[in-house]
Amino acid sequence: MKIRPLEIPEVLLIEPQRFGDERGWFSETFREAALAEAGFTRRFVQDNHSFSAPKGTLRGLHFQVDPNAQDKLVRCTRGSIVDVAVDIRQGSPTYGRHVKATLSAENGHQLLVPIGFAHAFVTLEPDCEVQYKVTGYYSKECDRGIFWNDPDLGIEWPFPAEEMTLSEKDKNAPLLADSAPFFVY
């Protein structure tokens, strides 16, 4: 399992190794000790699984605040997505910046999105499934969001806005500048 930091070093790209033969392949997708070696020692408590039918489905930018803030370990198990993490830690040298990675069933890559980051993904093809582990239980009271297309964030999405499918919640999320500082660096 190869683990490397992205341009914002707290966000980790995880590349599990696959061992294949004529039957297919085998891959170890989670190893607590490997993450601990990379500096991540929190415990995952919940697994989530989403299905998005249309290409261009965008989910995010989401996060949870204390006492149920969540680290997320995200992988795409069917299809492919562009996965995005935005630093929303007030005072961070990378505040308001983002990193992104393409995760797919084919490449098996995963993204570790730490607490203090908003998270979103957009599907690159129809019928995508995304699974992710989290370190905090879901709480409606702690659930928050940032507007997916906030111009201050400068995220280049793979599709124009009119070709994307979003929830009403995501369409109406506040800009980062209009949000309380939920996390302090």
Question: Can you summarize this structure?
Answer:
Homodimer. Its EC number is 5.1.3.13. This protein has 2 helices and 15 strands.
Radius of gyration: 16 Å
CATH homologous superfamily grouping: Jelly Rolls
Order of helices and strands: EEEEHEEEEEEEEEEHE
Give the class-level CATH name: Mainly Beta
Please state the overall shape, judged from the principal axes of the Cα atoms.
globular
Count the helices. How many?
A: 2
Q: How many domains make up the coordinates? A: 1
Protein name: dTDP-4-dehydrorhamnose 3,5-epimerase
Pathway: Carbohydrate biosynthesis; dTDP-L-rhamnose biosynthesis
Active site: 62, 132
Pfam families: dTDP_sugar_isom
Structure description:
The active site is at residues 62, 132. The radius of gyration is 16 Å and the shape is globular. It has a single domain, classed as Jelly Rolls (Sandwich). By secondary structure, the protein is mainly beta. The chain has a 6-stranded antiparallel β-sheet with strand order 1-2-11-7-13-5, with no helix packed on it. It contains 2 helices and 15 strands. The protein has helices spanning 32-37, 168-171; strands at 2-5, 12-15, 18-21, 24-27, 46-52, 58-64, 72-78, 80-87, 89-90, 98-104, 110-113, 117-123, 128-134, 143-145, 183-184. Helices cover 5% and strands 42% of the residues.
Q: What tags apply to this protein structure?
A:
5-stranded antiparallel sheet, mainly beta, Jelly Rolls, 185 residues, 6-stranded antiparallel sheet, single chain, 15 strands
SSE arrangement:
Elements: E1 2-5, E2 12-15, E3 18-21, E4 24-27, H1 32-37, E5 46-52, E6 58-64, E7 72-78, E8 80-87, E9 89-90, E10 98-104, E11 110-113, E12 117-123, E13 128-134, E14 143-145, H2 168-171, E15 183-184
Parallel strand pairs: 9-15
Antiparallel strand pairs: 1-2, 2-11, 3-4, 5-13, 6-12, 6-14, 7-11, 7-13, 8-10, 8-12
